[in-house]
Amino acid sequence: MLTFTDDGFKDAIQKDTGIRPPWAAEAFADLDTDVRQSIARTKADPFVAVRAASCSAVRHTTLTGCRTTASNR
């Protein structure tokens, strides 16, 4: 991947599809650091629901993965 560049990759996708991707096509220089950075971005994103300590307090089950049943409503 030494010849990989973000712009070159996006150019190739645009040439093939006609659409230039708006997202960053980053290569993994250090996997551990990149995973930590991705987790931090997810935690900081105001549009990502935070998992509640107890599923009984959760109303939006599709975002959290908790299931609402008669016993935990």
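The above is record 1. Record 2 follows with the same two-line structure.
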Amino acid sequence: MAAKHKLSVTVDRALIEAARAAVAAGRAASVSAWVNDALRRELASEQRRTPDTQ
């Protein structure tokens, strides 16, 4: 697994509540894991929209 780095961000209250609810329901191991998964999905989506031109 890649090294982790601490990140400070400002997030809408509803998104924080959704992340905490996902953890409470067992759908995520932690809020950090939930955010990591969301960022990973966004990156994958972006990569599908923007084909590599190299």
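The two ends are 26 Å apart (CA to CA).
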